[in-house]
Amino acid sequence: MADNKNKKLTMTQQEYQQVAKRKEPPRKVLVNCLRAFMIGGLICLIGQALMEMFIHWFDFTEKTAGNPTVAILILISVILTCLGVYDKISQWAGAGSAVPVTGFANSMCSAALEHRSEGMVLGVGGNMFKLAGSVIVFGTVAAFFVAIIHFLFGVGVK
């Protein structure tokens, strides 16, 4: 497929791509994977510590401790995004900071901050929904298919 793209380019463009490819610094895959693993693990460790705190100090059950844990992780993520810290962590850790709850909260908060000058409805609300819309639709469709499978075959989470 890359060769098909090169066929459409002029000779000067192809030469430029070859020079750019040679000058591109090599990627440190192992280091990036370790950073992602460390930060992702740290976020999960913080979440587990919060959950244990709710269970032992506030007499929550394992089922009920999940909701406040997620809420606090989202709050921490949003505060760090507003302060510009989460973006620095993301640049260093890469995919490790995209742990589902905190990464999604960061994405939503970043969209809100970026478009706040356009107004609350069309700026903040509209651009946040652009991001969240696909997640909501995918979640709804996935839940629909899981419900059908459960209804038809009686299998799934009980």
Task: Characterise the protein shown here.
The termini are far apart. It contains seven helices and no strands. It has helices spanning 2-8, 11-23, 29-57, 62-82, 85-93, 100-114, 120-153. α3 crosses α4 (62-82). The radius of gyration is 22 Å and the shape is extended. It is mostly helical and 158 residues long.
Short key terms for the protein model shown above:
158 residues, mainly alpha
Q: Averaging pLDDT over every residue, what do you get? A: 85
Q: Which structural class do the helices and strands define? A: mainly alpha
Largest sheet: none
Residue runs with pLDDT of under 50 for 5 or more positions? none
Helix share of residues?
A: over 70%
Cα gyration radius (Å): 22 Å
**CA-based shape:** extended
SS strand fraction: under 5%
Helices, strands, pairings?
Blueprint: H1 2-8, H2 11-23, H3 29-57, H4 62-82, H5 85-93, H6 100-114, H7 120-153
Helix pairs in contact: 3-4, 4-6, 6-7
At a glance:
By secondary structure, the chain is an all-alpha fold. Helices cover 81% and strands 0% of the residues.
